[in-house]
Amino acid sequence: MQDETETRTIIEDTGTYAPTWRALLAGGRGARIASVLTVIVLHAGGNYAAVTLAPAIVQDVGGGALIGALTALFNITTVLAAAATGPLAARYGTRWLWWGMSGLAILGALISALAGSMVLVATGRALAGFGGGGLLALGFVALRAETSAAAFPKISAISGAFWIGAAFAGPVIGGLFADFIGWRPAFVLLGVGMLAYGALNARTIARVTTEGSTERFPILSFAAFGSAIGCVSFAPHFTPIVASGLTVLGALAFALAVWRERSRAPRMFPARAFRVATMQGSAIAAKTVLGASAMSILVFGPLILTQVHGKSATFAGAFVLIETVGWSVASFVIVSAPWGRRLALLGPWITLAGLAGCSVFLIDGHLTGAALSIAACGFGLGMIWPFLGERMVAGDLDGEQTKTMAMVSSVETLGFAIGGALVGLVGAFVAGGAIDDAASVRAATQAGILLSMPFAMLGGVAAIRAMRTGG
Q1: Which of 5, 57, 85, 205 is deepest in the core (most CB within 10 A)?
Q2: Residue 160 and residue 126: Cα distance in Å, rounded?
């Protein structure tokens, strides 16, 4: 038998031990991890496919001003599902929750496939986000039962491989359907995939045990977070006066949700989630704002490439995936680098430089410069991501392990939701309320990218705090 010291290495600053790759994947654990993480390909890949399909959807049913809502609503319901999964699984177990979330993911895909307006397409995406987000959260709860907190940099790197799969499969499939088959069958295919995934992993999830809980469901926080993103996402659909009112209402709802989460139980998120003075809170803050910084490329990239620069949907989808590939590659590299933990703090600033490049090269159609800039955006995020996840799950979790692990799967998605809603709103405002020609697409894209840059800077500051804060 190998000596214990040969299969484990000390993770600095945590006082815990991390398994080597061989130890982590031994005993069939690698196969179980892979099976559970397949949901990333379906859930995130479906989101990438929807983004790639968006120009074709707009051409068919209109509603270009709501293009940001497609991703924002999907992402906020993903977060809400993850937050709901923690308390619901802790109180009632995982079996019935698994099938309920699978059903919602399938239903949402079918509603989008049959929709006659952008409002209904976005509604279907919201339901699909909730169902898929619940499946994703339950998968991470299962992974925490298999591993320790110190293993999560490697778990993050493994999940990065599935994000690469999502980044390739989603845009390529979405582009092929948009160019040759039609956008509606793409959503049908996504629903079938969710059905197969639910059946394949039901037995694994049913074996997971969670800590018991008598806490009431956090309905106020749940409604406030959902209303906040919903108001901002749908605001561009209305007149400027109504849109302004909805934006203010959304901001107030978000402030109410955060106040509620900080002040009292029942909570959607762990008690430290919105307390940036703590290690967990600052890591969550960093992931949230950095996630928001990634959205302008995802929302407007395919649109400007197809509507302004004349590229096909397949090309546009594949081009945008450079961001996710860079993200995933960096995650693999950084966890194995001798100075990875220190180099990781450069990541948000590399992302900021990439956004600056996109504001010039992507807008002007200089594809080589745009590709390098998009790669920098993703690579910078991937450098810091594994260690932020570790800081979220390390230390005393105040008896909220299930909530915390559910949030690990979705905290960046809260940032995606916030970023998607805001870049969509600002883009529509700058474009004059309608994103339907080359000039308005160019103006909206430029505004969205510029809005993303402060998020990258805030993420850099929060990441430094997370890495240097203990407890």
Answers
A1: 85
A2: 24
**Do β-strands 8-11 and 16-19 pair in parallel, antiparallel, or remain unpaired?**
antiparallel
> If residue 11 lies in a helix (H) or strand (E), which one and from where to where?
strand 8-11
Residue 173: closest CA among 186, 161, 192:
186
Class of domain 27-468: mainly alpha
| Chain segment 386-421, per-residue pLDDT in tens | 888 778 777 555 666 666 766 666 677 778 888 888
- Cβ neighbors of 174 (< 8 A, separation 6 or more) are 48, 49, 50, 51, 52, 53, 183, 186, 313, 317
- Name 8's bridge partners: 19
Give the pLDDT confidence score for residue 163 in this predicted structure.
Answer: 72
Look at the block and give the residue holding tokens 């992993």: 201
d(CA 153, CA 224): 32
Q: Token pair for residue 120?
A: 């209904």
Burial class (CB in 10 A: 0-12, 13-18, 19+), 231: buried
Cβ contact 304:319 at 8 Å: no
- In angstroms, what is the C-alpha Rg of the chain? 21
Q: How far is 193 from 440, CA to CA, in rounded Å?
A: 36
**Dist. CA 30–CA 417, nearest whole Å:** 31
Residue 19, classed as helix, strand or coil, is strand
Residue partners of 129: CB distance under 8 A and separation at least 6: 47, 73, 74, 75, 76, 77, 78, 81, 108
Residue among 317, 326, 237, 419 at smallest CA distance from 46: 317
Reported residue count of the chain is: 471
Beta-ladder partners of 17: 10
| pLDDT above 50 for 6 | no
Residue corresponding to tokens 């990541």:
347
Q: Are 146 and 32 in contact (CB under 8 A)?
A: yes
Q: Is the pLDDT of residue 120 over 60?
A: yes
Question: Cβ distance 26 to 149 under 8 Å?
Answer: no
Q: What is the largest CA-CA distance in the chain?
A: 71
Q: Residue ranges of the alpha helices (H) in 365-395?
A: 367-393
Q: What is the pLDDT of residues 7-57, one digit of tens each?
A: 333 333 344 556 676 777 767 777 777 878 888 888 888 888 888 888 889
Tell whether the torsion through CA atoms of 105, 107, 109 and 115 is positive or negative: negative
What residues pair up with 10 in beta bridges, in sequence order? 17
pTM listed for this prediction: 0.72
